[in-house]
Specification:
This protein has helices at 21-32, 62-66, 102-111, 133-138, 177-188, 213-218, 221-225, 231-238, and strands at residues 9-15, 37-40, 48-55, 70-78, 80-82, 91-94, 114-118, 127-128, 131-132, 148-161, 164-171, 192-202, 205-206, 211-212. The chain is 27% helix and 34% strand. The chain folds into 2 domains: 9-67 and 204-238, Pseudouridine synthase; 70-201, Pseudouridine synthase (2-Layer Sandwich).
Length: 240
Amino acid sequence: MNQSGTPDGVLLVDKAAGMTSHDVVALVRRQLQIKKVGHCGTLDPIATGLLILTLGRGTKIQDLLMSEDKEYVGTLSLGKITDTQDRAGEVIEERPVPELDEEKVRAVFDKFRGDFYQMPPMVSAIKRAGVPLYKLARQGKTVEREPRLVHVYRYSVERVAPPEIYFTVLCSKGFYVRTYAHDIGEALGCGAHLKELRRTRSGRFDLSRAVTVEEIKSSAPSDLLGKILALPEVSRMRGA
């Protein structure tokens, strides 16, 4: 706690599906009766898993925490392309799914490793002239986007069960897993969209010490305060 009575530190949350990252921030603000809460790395409503919240002076290290590598477990669904590149969008094209074995699938995943360029989707929080792209997309507008250099450190294809492929990916900041699913679908020739996504790690933080949204709702504020990682502990965990 700092002198104003606001806790300083980091709260690890296991976000539930159907919520925005801002919904989680608003919930914690309400439960702890504090204003200074931020989050590191947006998770789309369809996604679950690790959301790092910064509280009080913890907001000063938000950019530092956001810049770290992230690990996701996901499912892509072949044969249907959506306008958002995930299951939340409208299907805009359907294609037949060819015969696929693990070898073919791994060969395509292999093309998307190391450094490569990714085109950010229109439904994203990137701003153009101060306006988030997703707001322009809602108006039916498409604007030019700059491809971004991203990095995949490692991936694994967990299971190929057409039309679904289950995978894990460890990637750099600014990486769009739904674009990854879309691009892999294009490379396989049948198109794809992201069906499920769970963030399991960000930097040195994982889900082992995360609180669920239900726990946040049902916990007494004093119990919730006990879950906050103090800034010296955050530094030690990061090896800083």
